[in-house]
Model the fold of this input.
Amino acid sequence: MRVGIGYDAHRLVEGRNLVLGGEEIEFPQGLLGHSDADILCHSIADALLGASGLGDLGKHFPPDDPRYEGVSSLKILKEVAKMVIKRGFTISYIDSLIIAQEPKLSKYIKGMRGKIASCLGIEMERVSVKATTTEGLGFSGRGEGMEAMAIALLTE
Done:
């Protein structure tokens, strides 16, 4: 078995849609980034790449590459899954956490899990998505941005 950890954070800005786990979230701000800035998908992709020894997200999908401008992070996640499987690994489990003061995400979690599982080619029961706040502490607590963390378990 192999384990990898992933983390991502982006600033909240006006004029962008908020996308988390492939779900469009009703919120007046979105995350700033080169792609759709889906921090949940990015953290999961980084965890998968780390567990399989393939480096990090920036190595494979550089933020200055015009091919990835505005791209759905679900597409990136699918590509990462293919790379991991080609390397001889099975994706056994994903545990992830979104850290944001607002908005409340509970009604979106099931949809996120389904989309992520579909991209990875695994059952939804093998994908955990949780959300928490920081009780107003730090940049995510002040509503300046959002963070996500993930752990991936792979088997050979």
User: Anything to note?
Assistant: Residues 101 and 143 are 6 Å apart (CA to CA).
